[in-house]
Design goal:
The chain is an alpha+beta fold and about 100 residues long. The chain has a domain of about 60 residues: Translation initiation factor 3 (IF-3), N-terminal domain (Ubiquitin-like (UB roll)), CATH 3.10.20. Helices cover about 25% and strands about 25% of the residues. It has a 4-stranded mixed beta sheet with strand order 2-1-4-3. A hairpin with a 5-residue loop joins β1 and β2. The N and C termini lie far apart (about 50 Å).
């Protein structure tokens, strides 16, 4: 009699990949307390440079504004992160 076999699309890899396994070019996004640089340059949603601040002050500013700090880049020589002060959910949706 006919024996049913599981469907196979030819791809033998498991579909249970982590985010980074399924997208090798994906970068980790650091947000708020995950940003460890001692100095932070803040860019707002209108792409205006608000200045460079100590980490603690930058986190306070974002909290006061009800927004998140999302790391855009990190300069290891200056030990400085460049961040966007924005709503994290909105930022990820736009990406």
């Amino acid at each position: 009699m006919y024996e049913k076999k599981p469907f196979s699309s030819g791809n033998t890899q498991s579909r249970n990949h982590s985010f980074h396994d399924s997208n090798p070019k994906a970068k980790m996004v650091y947000v708020n307390d995950q940003i460890k640089a001692p100095t932070i340059m803040i860019i707002d949603d209108e792409k205006q440079n608000l200045g460079t601040f100590p980490r603690k002050r930058a986190l306070e500013m974002a909290d006061e504004a009800g927004l998140d700090l999302v790391q855009i880049s990190y300069d290891p020589e200056k030990m400085q992160s460049t961040v966007r002060m924005t709503d994290y959910g909105k930022y990820m949706y736009q990406k």
